[in-house]
Amino acid sequence: MAQTGISSRFPWWGRFKEGWAVFRENLLGKIGMSLLVLFGLMALCSYIPPMIDSMYNPMAGVDPHVTSSTGPSLKHWLGTDFMGRDILSQLLAGARVAFMVGVTAAFMSIFLGTAIGMVAGYAGRVADTLLMRLADMVMVMPTLLVVIILAALFGQLSIWTIVLIIALFRWPGVSRVIRAQTLSLKQRPFIDAARVAGASHLRIIFKHIMPNVLPLSFLYMTFRVTSAITIEAALAFLGFGDPGTVSWGMMLQWVWKTGHMFRAPYWLLPPGICISLITLSFYMLGRAMEEVLDPRLRKEDKSA
Amino acid sequence: MALLSVERLSVGYQTGKGYLKAVENVSFTLEEGRSLGFVGESGCGKTTLGMAIMGLLPENASITSGRVVFAGEDLLRKSEEEMRGIRWKEMAMIFQAAMNALNPVHRVQDQIAEAIMTHDPQRGREETLHRVEELFDLVGLPRDRMRDYPHQYSGGMKQRAIIAMALSCNPRLIIADEPTTALDVIVQHRILEKTKSLQGQLKFGMIFISHDISVVAEVCDDIGIMYAGQLVECGPIEEVFSAPRHPYTAALFSSFPSLTGERRGLNPIPGETPNLIRPPSGCRFCERCPGAESACRLESPEWTEITPRHRVMCPGCRGNSPSPERG
Amino acid sequence: MNREPVLRLEKVSRIYRGRASLFGGRSTTVKALNRVSLSLEDGEIFGLVGESGSGKTTCGRLIVKLEEPQEGKVFLDAKEITDLKGQELKAYRRKVQMIFQDPYQSLNPQLSIFESVAEPLIIHRESAGAERRERVLSILRAVGLAPPEDYIQRYPHQLSGGQRQRVAIARAMVLGPEVVVADEPTSMLDASYSAQIYNLLLELRDRLHVTILFITHNLAAAKYLCDRIAVIYRGTLMEVASAEELIRHPKHPYTQALIDALPKFGHCEGIRRYDALLEREREGSDGPCCPFFARCAKARLERCGREVPPLQAFGSDCQVACFCVESGEGMETEAGQCYFGV
């Protein structure tokens, strides 16, 4: 049965459609996806308030009429923080930061983890042992603690440094899984066939193993995003975040530091709820994707 | 009275892509003590047929019509409870790759003993073990291996153990689905010889399902050829082999290379098996049939009797001369 | 025909060494192939027949250099290729290819048919663009997937087992190799697809002039397809002869046992039973002995249990590894006609 149209030019489109059909049925996936779309919109909209009026700028905006934390009003839908800055625009900016941090850190750690996992699985023997012992060592190190120590030693860290450090500490989990998958792929006859055809090791890794391993990588990326966002939020809350960036964790820190925790629920609740919800929605997305990937991975076997 | 009589049985599966008509209107009878082999390629429905008779179809399968009359009673009307009483005691099944069905953490003798005691709770342990010894002798396994674990057995030995288990309650009918596919040639030969001699000795009826015609030829009295869910030809082995009437039968025979035949004598069947979700109307083989006529596509084919025991389902063959010589 | 054989194995052994266990067990050694010598003539289809564990697949893998022998030498066109590396190894791979057993696993599910078949061309930097496409189309046509344009954009899971195997054959043949090792190419296919593949291999051998090593457990298929057949048991060759000769006059007891074991039927009164197998295995001797000694019903000589019989020429066309045959101990054989022909 030939695929026609777009599917024949871009075969992954056809498989994406199939995967989408399964995904759609999954309740978790739908909830997760909708929430993420919501947050995505929030992130996009974060550019709007400052354009309307400079007083809505999340960091520097100052409402001349407001000098302390006030509750929701017509001008400030969620109220203002202790400096008179608009909470809603901070929330929107936080969404942007969450996505940036989450996705970038996750992407980098997956990149690293996949590369190392593939090399370890494919090369085997000494390289495998060395890399996996390295993974073990990195894995047991408590990320948060290390970052705090580094921040204490080197002063405030920029957001991108934080992202880099998260990536450097979170790759082992992925690499184990990718390594296992690579090991099982290595046994498959089509790898032998490539070798018999004369393919170099690099070619086998990139052309044959990687495409079969990437779906798993993407799956793990969703899980990594949750941990990246949580770590960043925790760091910011504890005071080790980037002071120049407004993130939800940073907002929580301000609430706490200025003693408004029990006095300003309109300020405390939104960022807290957002952190919880975004991590939850990425997690749900990951679980739904698992269901999509599993039967398809099985579908690679005999049909008819 | 026939031991087993299947009348117009149709089974289908509900799949993601639609309703798959796996078995369509299959009818046959099996006498006591005789063996009937079902031959066909993958997807022809032979395994589904075996499972339907045993009542072991999966959740998404449904029997749309027909009767399965075993020893005078319609099995399809029975409840699961009643079927459980019949399975193993009256009817036993040997599945594909059955050797993997042995539990690796229990001794072989214990597994066979359990099968016996489950269906005959009166028996004491000692009596049961005595019976296991008898079974071991019967299938040709050495008694001193009774206390071994399955992983200590070779493939052939595991298969014999499975046969012993199937025979343990003296069933009247055994359905064997590709019992020797995973085995080497010599071991397979031994097991088939043993099966045939056991059948002569214990006089149970047997349904033997295989994709390999030569295996069925060695063991069975009668043969049924299945194609795309339909039974297209059925009869005693000698008659069907000497004069195959259905074009698929003839083509199937000529697909097996012969030890003494001519080079390039193989005439493989061109084309592919039909889609069972939207099967062609009429005879399902007509698209690949060299002798297809317009009638084949339209009419739902009916049985034509060649001899009292040999029948064929082929609209094009009605009253015609036998199909062309193979190869 | 005194031309140099296109592929020659000389006393090749493949030994697997298990590691010694931590608790003091000795390391285990398994000889998958034991000093095997055989040669393939140019343009012939040579059958290697054996049961599981006989070493036939290992032999194929050694030839395509997926594994390396511990002993012995391999020659292609009279040049030793046992220790090739780098560019020379790559050049070797152009000339020697393999068709794998499992059509469901030997094609990368992520690659289209075009990509799979073009891969050897890409790796060896042969032709490009339109020319490459043309070569792929033409080889697909040659293996019977016509019109090839219909197939190149498809993916393996959209094809049947028989079609996938044809694609695997196309991939093996696209570079125009000298030798192709076919490792049980039909054992996972239905009868009608298998038959198509056999005829295809015969056709391709004639058209493209390749030498084919056909590895199988099915003696009947080997008889149909091959010019010569070698029977292998536990890593050692037992008998090598022309296909006709091997089937009609099998000399080695193991070959006879294989022929006995093939299901026969019908008016087979002419077919002889060789009864070459013992009901129960004999007690093995610790030292060297004939590999088949434990099961052989025809082992009449003392030597059978004491020495390993070498593969020796017997008559003009045969080689047999059996002391009893050598000494002419009454091994008269005759095969008759059988209706179903198996």
What does this entry look like structurally?
The complex is a heterotrimer of chains A (304), B (327) and C (342). Chain A is mostly helical. Chain A has a single domain, classed as MetI-like (MetI-like fold), CATH 1.10.3720.10. In chain B, α3 crosses α4 and α5 runs parallel beside α6. Helices cover 30% and strands 23% of the residues of chain B. Chain B is globular, with a radius of gyration of 21 Å. In chain B, α6 links the parallel β7 and β8. The longest helix of chain B is centred in the middle third of the chain and has 18 residues. In chain B, the strands form two sheets. Chain B has an eight-stranded mixed sheet, with helices on both faces. Chain C is α/β, with parallel strands linked by helices and 342 residues long. Chain C has two domains: 242 residues, Rossmann fold (3-Layer(aba) Sandwich), CATH 3.40.50; 94 residues, no CATH class. Chain C is 30% helix and 20% strand. Chain C contains eleven helices and twelve strands.
What is the succession of H and E elements of chain A? HHHHHHHHHHHHH
Question: Regions of chain A with pLDDT < 50 over 5+ consecutive residues?
Answer: 1-9, 295-304
Domain count of chain A, please report it.
1
Helix content of chain A: over 70%
CATH class of chain A: Mainly Alpha
Helix content of chain C: 25-40%
**Tally of alpha and pi helices of chain C:** 11
Largest interface comes to:
B-C, 39 and 40 residues
According to CATH, what is the topology of the largest domain in chain C? Rossmann fold
CATH domain class of the largest domain in chain C: Alpha Beta
Q: What proportion strand of chain C?
A: 15-25%
Radius of gyration of chain C: 22 Å
Low-pLDDT windows of residues of chain C: 266-270, 333-342
Characteristics:
heterotrimer; A: about 300 residues; MetI-like fold; about 75% helix; disordered N terminus; B: about 325 residues; 8-stranded mixed sheet; 10 helices; about 30% helix; about 25% strand; disordered C terminus
Concise synopsis of the structure shown:
The complex is a heterotrimer of chains A (304), B (327) and C (342). Chain A has 304 residues and is mostly helical.
